[in-house]
Amino acid sequence: MAATLKGRASRRSGSPLTPYLFLTPYLAIFVTFVVIPAVFGIWISLHDWDYMLDSQIFLGLRNYADLLDETSLPYPEFWNGMKNTLIFTVASVPFLIVIPLLLAMLLNVRFPGRTFFRAMFFAPYVLGVAVIGLMWRYLLDGNFGIINSIFRTDIQWTTDQPWAWVALVGVTVWWTMGFNAIIYLAGLGDIPAEQYEAAALDGAGWWNKFVYVTLPGLRPVLIFIMITTILASANMFGQSYIITNGGPTESTKTAIMTITELGLRRYQMGAAAAESYVLAAFLALVSIANFWLLRDREAAKERRELKAERREIDETRRAGASA
Protein backbone atom coordinates (compact mmCIF):
# COMPACT_ATOMS: atom_id res chain seq x y z
CA MET A 1 0.00 0.00 0.00
CA ALA A 2 2.79 2.40 0.93
CA ALA A 3 4.66 1.53 -2.27
CA THR A 4 1.53 2.22 -4.32
CA LEU A 5 1.03 5.63 -2.70
CA LYS A 6 4.70 6.44 -3.21
CA GLY A 7 4.47 5.52 -6.90
CA ARG A 8 1.37 7.67 -7.35
CA ALA A 9 3.06 10.61 -5.62
CA SER A 10 6.13 10.30 -7.82
CA ARG A 11 4.01 10.19 -10.97
CA ARG A 12 2.01 13.18 -9.77
CA SER A 13 5.07 15.29 -8.96
CA GLY A 14 6.83 14.44 -12.21
CA SER A 15 10.40 15.25 -13.11
CA PRO A 16 11.99 18.36 -11.60
CA LEU A 17 13.15 19.28 -15.10
CA THR A 18 9.58 19.56 -16.44
CA PRO A 19 9.14 23.31 -15.63
CA TYR A 20 12.42 24.11 -17.35
CA LEU A 21 11.30 22.16 -20.40
CA PHE A 22 8.21 24.37 -20.69
CA LEU A 23 10.35 27.47 -20.17
CA THR A 24 12.86 26.50 -22.86
CA PRO A 25 11.10 28.19 -25.85
CA TYR A 26 10.70 31.46 -23.96
CA LEU A 27 14.24 31.34 -22.59
CA ALA A 28 15.61 30.69 -26.08
CA ILE A 29 13.79 33.72 -27.48
CA PHE A 30 14.71 35.86 -24.47
CA VAL A 31 18.40 34.98 -24.66
CA THR A 32 18.54 35.40 -28.44
CA PHE A 33 16.73 38.71 -28.73
CA VAL A 34 17.38 40.34 -25.32
CA VAL A 35 20.38 38.98 -23.45
CA ILE A 36 22.78 38.58 -26.39
CA PRO A 37 21.96 42.01 -27.94
CA ALA A 38 22.27 43.65 -24.50
CA VAL A 39 25.70 42.12 -23.88
CA PHE A 40 26.81 42.90 -27.42
CA GLY A 41 25.60 46.49 -26.98
CA ILE A 42 27.81 46.88 -23.92
CA TRP A 43 30.75 45.58 -25.99
CA ILE A 44 29.95 48.10 -28.74
CA SER A 45 29.82 50.95 -26.21
CA LEU A 46 33.45 50.21 -25.29
CA HIS A 47 34.64 50.82 -28.87
CA ASP A 48 34.80 53.52 -31.49
CA TRP A 49 32.35 51.40 -33.44
CA ASP A 50 31.73 52.25 -37.09
CA TYR A 51 29.92 49.42 -38.84
CA MET A 52 31.22 50.71 -42.18
CA LEU A 53 34.77 49.70 -41.17
CA ASP A 54 36.26 46.22 -40.81
CA SER A 55 38.04 46.85 -37.49
CA GLN A 56 36.83 48.73 -34.42
CA ILE A 57 39.05 50.68 -32.00
CA PHE A 58 38.78 49.75 -28.33
CA LEU A 59 38.22 52.83 -26.13
CA GLY A 60 37.30 51.35 -22.79
CA LEU A 61 35.05 53.71 -20.83
CA ARG A 62 35.90 56.80 -22.88
CA ASN A 63 32.43 56.95 -24.49
CA TYR A 64 30.89 57.06 -21.00
CA ALA A 65 33.46 59.58 -19.75
CA ASP A 66 32.65 61.89 -22.68
CA LEU A 67 29.07 62.13 -21.40
CA LEU A 68 30.43 63.67 -18.19
CA ASP A 69 32.93 65.98 -19.93
CA GLU A 70 31.44 69.38 -20.77
CA THR A 71 34.10 69.96 -23.46
CA SER A 72 33.27 66.78 -25.42
CA LEU A 73 31.11 66.87 -28.54
CA PRO A 74 28.42 64.38 -27.38
CA TYR A 75 27.90 66.14 -24.01
CA PRO A 76 25.65 69.10 -24.98
CA GLU A 77 23.50 67.16 -27.45
CA PHE A 78 22.93 64.20 -25.15
CA TRP A 79 22.05 66.19 -22.06
CA ASN A 80 19.84 68.50 -24.09
CA GLY A 81 18.00 65.38 -25.24
CA MET A 82 17.79 64.12 -21.65
CA LYS A 83 16.38 67.48 -20.54
CA ASN A 84 13.75 67.43 -23.28
CA THR A 85 12.89 63.83 -22.41
CA LEU A 86 12.42 64.84 -18.77
CA ILE A 87 10.18 67.77 -19.78
CA PHE A 88 7.97 65.54 -21.90
CA THR A 89 7.81 62.81 -19.25
CA VAL A 90 6.91 65.19 -16.43
CA ALA A 91 4.32 66.94 -18.60
CA SER A 92 2.62 63.84 -20.03
CA VAL A 93 2.72 61.16 -17.34
CA PRO A 94 0.30 62.84 -14.86
CA PHE A 95 -2.30 63.25 -17.62
CA LEU A 96 -1.79 59.65 -18.79
CA ILE A 97 -2.37 58.38 -15.26
CA VAL A 98 -5.25 60.57 -14.07
CA ILE A 99 -7.35 61.03 -17.23
CA PRO A 100 -7.51 57.28 -18.09
CA LEU A 101 -8.44 56.51 -14.48
CA LEU A 102 -11.34 58.97 -14.57
CA LEU A 103 -12.34 57.66 -17.99
CA ALA A 104 -12.22 54.05 -16.77
CA MET A 105 -14.39 54.87 -13.74
CA LEU A 106 -16.92 56.51 -16.06
CA LEU A 107 -16.90 53.60 -18.52
CA ASN A 108 -17.22 51.13 -15.65
CA VAL A 109 -20.73 52.41 -14.95
CA ARG A 110 -23.50 50.60 -16.80
CA PHE A 111 -25.23 52.77 -19.41
CA PRO A 112 -26.49 52.22 -22.97
CA GLY A 113 -23.68 52.20 -25.54
CA ARG A 114 -20.93 51.61 -22.99
CA THR A 115 -19.17 49.04 -25.19
CA PHE A 116 -19.23 51.43 -28.15
CA PHE A 117 -17.60 54.22 -26.16
CA ARG A 118 -14.99 51.83 -24.80
CA ALA A 119 -14.06 50.89 -28.35
CA MET A 120 -14.00 54.52 -29.50
CA PHE A 121 -11.62 55.63 -26.77
CA PHE A 122 -9.32 52.66 -27.41
CA ALA A 123 -9.42 52.96 -31.21
CA PRO A 124 -6.64 55.60 -31.63
CA TYR A 125 -4.16 53.34 -29.83
CA VAL A 126 -4.30 50.73 -32.61
CA LEU A 127 -2.97 53.27 -35.11
CA GLY A 128 0.77 53.43 -35.73
CA VAL A 129 2.87 56.40 -34.70
CA ALA A 130 3.50 57.27 -38.36
CA VAL A 131 -0.25 57.59 -39.01
CA ILE A 132 -0.80 59.62 -35.83
CA GLY A 133 2.20 61.85 -36.49
CA LEU A 134 1.35 62.69 -40.09
CA MET A 135 -2.32 63.26 -39.32
CA TRP A 136 -1.65 65.65 -36.46
CA ARG A 137 1.19 67.36 -38.30
CA TYR A 138 -1.30 68.59 -40.87
CA LEU A 139 -4.06 69.23 -38.34
CA LEU A 140 -1.69 71.37 -36.23
CA ASP A 141 -0.07 73.22 -39.11
CA GLY A 142 -0.02 76.93 -38.24
CA ASN A 143 -0.84 78.06 -41.79
CA PHE A 144 -3.63 75.75 -42.99
CA GLY A 145 -4.27 73.39 -40.09
CA ILE A 146 -7.84 72.70 -39.08
CA ILE A 147 -7.12 73.19 -35.36
CA ASN A 148 -6.52 76.92 -35.82
CA SER A 149 -9.62 77.13 -38.00
CA ILE A 150 -11.82 75.47 -35.38
CA PHE A 151 -10.61 77.55 -32.45
CA ARG A 152 -10.04 80.70 -34.52
CA THR A 153 -6.47 81.03 -33.32
CA ASP A 154 -3.17 81.89 -34.99
CA ILE A 155 -0.77 79.59 -33.17
CA GLN A 156 2.25 77.89 -34.68
CA TRP A 157 1.75 74.58 -32.89
CA THR A 158 4.81 72.87 -34.35
CA THR A 159 7.36 75.68 -34.61
CA ASP A 160 6.87 77.83 -31.49
CA GLN A 161 7.32 77.14 -27.81
CA PRO A 162 5.58 76.34 -25.50
CA TRP A 163 2.98 75.34 -28.09
CA ALA A 164 5.17 72.59 -29.52
CA TRP A 165 5.21 70.86 -26.14
CA VAL A 166 1.48 71.42 -25.71
CA ALA A 167 0.90 69.80 -29.09
CA LEU A 168 3.15 66.80 -28.41
CA VAL A 169 1.69 66.15 -24.97
CA GLY A 170 -1.89 66.61 -26.20
CA VAL A 171 -1.41 64.26 -29.16
CA THR A 172 0.25 61.61 -27.00
CA VAL A 173 -2.48 61.74 -24.35
CA TRP A 174 -5.21 61.50 -26.99
CA TRP A 175 -3.41 58.63 -28.71
CA THR A 176 -2.49 56.41 -25.74
CA MET A 177 -4.99 57.12 -22.97
CA GLY A 178 -7.31 54.37 -24.26
CA PHE A 179 -4.74 51.69 -23.48
CA ASN A 180 -4.31 52.80 -19.87
CA ALA A 181 -8.10 53.11 -19.52
CA ILE A 182 -8.56 49.49 -20.59
CA ILE A 183 -5.97 48.36 -18.03
CA TYR A 184 -7.76 50.37 -15.35
CA LEU A 185 -11.08 48.82 -16.36
CA ALA A 186 -9.63 45.34 -15.90
CA GLY A 187 -8.42 46.34 -12.45
CA LEU A 188 -11.77 47.85 -11.49
CA GLY A 189 -13.49 44.63 -12.51
CA ASP A 190 -11.35 42.68 -10.03
CA ILE A 191 -12.44 44.80 -7.02
CA PRO A 192 -15.22 42.89 -5.20
CA ALA A 193 -18.55 44.72 -5.19
CA GLU A 194 -18.98 43.68 -1.55
CA GLN A 195 -16.28 46.16 -0.56
CA TYR A 196 -18.27 49.06 -2.02
CA GLU A 197 -21.44 47.75 -0.35
CA ALA A 198 -19.70 47.53 3.01
CA ALA A 199 -18.33 51.05 2.58
CA ALA A 200 -21.83 52.33 1.73
CA LEU A 201 -23.26 50.67 4.85
CA ASP A 202 -20.61 52.49 6.89
CA GLY A 203 -21.80 55.77 5.42
CA ALA A 204 -18.86 56.33 3.08
CA GLY A 205 -19.37 58.80 0.23
CA TRP A 206 -17.95 58.55 -3.27
CA TRP A 207 -14.67 60.17 -2.25
CA ASN A 208 -14.09 57.80 0.69
CA LYS A 209 -14.98 54.85 -1.53
CA PHE A 210 -12.44 56.06 -4.07
CA VAL A 211 -9.67 56.59 -1.50
CA TYR A 212 -10.22 53.53 0.71
CA VAL A 213 -11.61 50.97 -1.76
CA THR A 214 -10.77 51.87 -5.37
CA LEU A 215 -7.18 53.07 -4.99
CA PRO A 216 -6.02 50.20 -2.73
CA GLY A 217 -7.68 47.72 -5.08
CA LEU A 218 -5.92 49.29 -8.04
CA ARG A 219 -2.45 49.38 -6.43
CA PRO A 220 -0.88 46.63 -8.63
CA VAL A 221 -2.51 48.10 -11.74
CA LEU A 222 -1.40 51.61 -10.80
CA ILE A 223 2.20 50.46 -10.36
CA PHE A 224 2.11 48.76 -13.76
CA ILE A 225 0.58 51.76 -15.51
CA MET A 226 2.91 54.26 -13.88
CA ILE A 227 6.07 52.34 -14.78
CA THR A 228 5.04 51.50 -18.34
CA THR A 229 3.84 55.07 -18.95
CA ILE A 230 7.08 56.58 -17.68
CA LEU A 231 9.12 54.19 -19.81
CA ALA A 232 7.01 54.89 -22.89
CA SER A 233 7.20 58.66 -22.39
CA ALA A 234 10.95 58.53 -21.81
CA ASN A 235 11.31 56.62 -25.08
CA MET A 236 9.18 59.05 -27.08
CA PHE A 237 10.51 59.36 -30.62
CA GLY A 238 7.95 59.18 -33.39
CA GLN A 239 5.70 62.07 -32.35
CA SER A 240 8.56 64.53 -32.02
CA TYR A 241 10.33 63.27 -35.13
CA ILE A 242 7.27 63.55 -37.36
CA ILE A 243 5.31 66.47 -35.89
CA THR A 244 8.05 68.93 -34.84
CA ASN A 245 11.20 67.28 -36.24
CA GLY A 246 12.87 68.04 -32.91
CA GLY A 247 12.29 71.77 -33.26
CA PRO A 248 12.12 74.59 -32.73
CA THR A 249 15.90 74.85 -32.24
CA GLU A 250 16.10 71.24 -30.97
CA SER A 251 13.85 72.07 -28.00
CA THR A 252 11.78 68.90 -28.58
CA LYS A 253 14.66 66.66 -29.66
CA THR A 254 14.51 63.78 -27.18
CA ALA A 255 17.30 61.50 -26.00
CA ILE A 256 16.15 58.71 -28.32
CA MET A 257 16.32 61.09 -31.30
CA THR A 258 19.84 62.14 -30.29
CA ILE A 259 20.98 58.50 -29.92
CA THR A 260 19.41 57.50 -33.25
CA GLU A 261 21.02 60.39 -35.14
CA LEU A 262 24.42 59.75 -33.57
CA GLY A 263 24.41 56.05 -34.34
CA LEU A 264 22.62 55.78 -37.68
CA ARG A 265 23.49 59.06 -39.36
CA ARG A 266 26.95 59.76 -37.99
CA TYR A 267 27.95 56.09 -37.74
CA GLN A 268 29.16 56.51 -34.13
CA MET A 269 27.56 53.37 -32.80
CA GLY A 270 29.87 53.11 -29.79
CA ALA A 271 28.95 56.55 -28.46
CA ALA A 272 25.27 55.95 -29.25
CA ALA A 273 25.34 52.62 -27.35
CA ALA A 274 26.92 54.32 -24.33
CA GLU A 275 24.22 56.99 -24.35
CA SER A 276 21.50 54.36 -24.59
CA TYR A 277 22.84 52.53 -21.54
CA VAL A 278 23.05 55.74 -19.54
CA LEU A 279 19.40 56.41 -20.42
CA ALA A 280 18.52 52.82 -19.47
CA ALA A 281 20.25 53.26 -16.10
CA PHE A 282 18.19 56.37 -15.35
CA LEU A 283 14.97 54.58 -16.30
CA ALA A 284 15.90 51.60 -14.11
CA LEU A 285 16.42 53.90 -11.13
CA VAL A 286 13.05 55.57 -11.78
CA SER A 287 11.32 52.18 -11.98
CA ILE A 288 12.89 51.03 -8.70
CA ALA A 289 11.82 54.30 -7.05
CA ASN A 290 8.25 53.78 -8.27
CA PHE A 291 8.15 50.25 -6.84
CA TRP A 292 9.47 51.52 -3.52
CA LEU A 293 7.11 54.49 -3.27
CA LEU A 294 3.99 52.54 -4.28
CA ARG A 295 4.71 49.37 -2.30
CA ASP A 296 2.15 48.09 0.19
CA ARG A 297 3.78 49.24 3.43
CA GLU A 298 1.27 47.44 5.67
CA ALA A 299 1.84 44.12 3.91
CA ALA A 300 5.60 44.64 4.09
CA LYS A 301 5.32 45.36 7.81
CA GLU A 302 3.28 42.18 8.33
CA ARG A 303 5.88 40.14 6.44
CA ARG A 304 8.68 41.57 8.60
CA GLU A 305 6.74 40.79 11.78
CA LEU A 306 6.05 37.25 10.56
CA LYS A 307 9.74 36.71 9.80
CA ALA A 308 10.65 38.01 13.25
CA GLU A 309 8.17 35.60 14.88
CA ARG A 310 9.55 32.66 12.89
CA ARG A 311 13.08 33.65 13.86
CA GLU A 312 12.12 33.73 17.54
CA ILE A 313 10.44 30.32 17.26
CA ASP A 314 13.52 28.84 15.58
CA GLU A 315 15.80 30.29 18.23
CA THR A 316 13.56 28.89 20.98
CA ARG A 317 13.62 25.44 19.37
CA ARG A 318 17.40 25.53 19.08
CA ALA A 319 17.73 26.60 22.69
CA GLY A 320 15.43 23.76 23.77
CA ALA A 321 17.30 21.22 21.68
CA SER A 322 20.68 22.28 23.06
CA ALA A 323 19.36 22.11 26.61
Automatic annotation (TrEMBL):
Its main location: membrane. InterPro entries: ABC_transporter_permease, MetI-like, MetI-like_sf. It comes from the Bacteria. The chain crosses the membrane at residues 20-44, 86-107, 119-139, 163-186, 221-243, 276-294. CDD domains: TM_PBP2 (cd06261). It is a multi-pass membrane protein. One of its GO terms (cellular component) is plasma membrane. GO terms for biological process: transmembrane transport. Keywords: Cell membrane, Membrane, Transmembrane, Transmembrane helix, Transport. Residues 82-290 form the ABC transmembrane type-1 domain. PROSITE patterns: ABC_TM1. It is found in: Cell membrane. Belongs to the binding-protein-dependent transport system permease family. This is Sugar ABC transporter permease. It comes from Tessaracoccus antarcticus.
